[in-house]
């Protein structure tokens, strides 16, 4: 979206990048501080990949269970960076 | 209200993130000499995109839809007093404090429709009106003050005050306090239910910039940003991942010591060794012992034969799933951090944290996720 703004010359690409970086920080802290819920899931693992300390999984027929609701998907890709 | 927890927390969180980001970048914008108005446009565009994607329901702009509904119920005229409660509002949300933004309907003097048309907003309003009433229910109470004073405020998370002014003819304006500058205008097509609006919106949808696509998986760029505790990486998950996937799959599909591209295009490229090498024995490893000269002579002989034998072999080589499976971009995604990934034989256990999920088009968030899967 910030690139749309860049294209229309309303903000420079540099500025767009700054906004994105700021978003990174904000979403990071928001997730760390403000979100406090837990999810369980179960499914079958189709593929797994661990490269550059990033795990990428593709799961099939997964059920995501939160306290309040249940979500079923045929396929989900999980990308996870190191949390430490 | 089974869905209340998630539909309540996610919009709230996103809203607060938007506020935080906008406020944090405001300084940067001003330093760069960019007008405040652009910042407001950014914010509105952001919110509109979120609404569009339907990844989250019940959002900032949805309060504007409430205004629309109110207007639809009443004649388009200048309204002095209007009080509208949404009974559907869930208990948590009837409390218009804290993180919830409070929007107030204000009559303003009727003005001509503004030239600027912001398409997503129109579409959103149409969409929300037509279908999802429950989303509208998450907004706070609407109230009109006595008199015409445009001092109605939206109290956002960060305490930033915005004013929403809505003319009877449907034009909306957002003011910042202490400035009488109109920051944004949105034109909403005539206030008629469903059917009339639909064709208008379809036409208007056409000139949408190319960056916006109706697919939820693609719209929101910030969601594609991966973060770690220490560093940030921008990974367009649907784009970057497939390329290593392809490279790996082609690598594992090959067992012969040949340039991979060459073997991929079997029909086009003559196989000069391997099964095509008539001089070789059954065990292909032995080829490596041959002299280069010998191979060269026998290449020509074996070339044509190699093609025929090549194809059936090649097609059997590929055991893996179709690569498209990984490339499909509306696939459900989870972007998070991992605490621990464990495996026993073929039983995997996942301990994940701080993640955003997009499942079936909707966004979810978790601070911890634990999962099991069998490979």
Automatic annotation (TrEMBL), chain A:
Residues 42-83 form the Transcription initiation factor IIA gamma subunit C-terminal domain. Keywords: Nucleus, Transcription, Transcription regulation. One of its GO terms (cellular component) is transcription factor TFIIA complex. The keyword ATP-binding does not apply. Pfam families: TFIIA_gamma_C. SUPFAM superfamilies: Transcription factor IIA (TFIIA), alpha-helical domain, Transcription factor IIA (TFIIA), beta-barrel domain. Coiled coil: none annotated. It comes from the Eukaryota. It is found in: Nucleus. InterPro entries: TFIIA_a-hlx (IPR009083), TFIIA_b-brl (IPR009088), TFIIA_gsu (IPR003194), TFIIA_gsu_C (IPR015871). CDD domains: TFIIA_gamma_C. The keyword Transcription applies. GO terms for biological process: transcription initiation at RNA polymerase II promoter. TFIIA is a component of the transcription machinery of RNA polymerase II and plays an important role in transcriptional activation. TFIIA in a complex with TBP mediates transcriptional activity. Belongs to the TFIIA subunit 2 family. This is Transcription initiation factor IIA subunit 2.
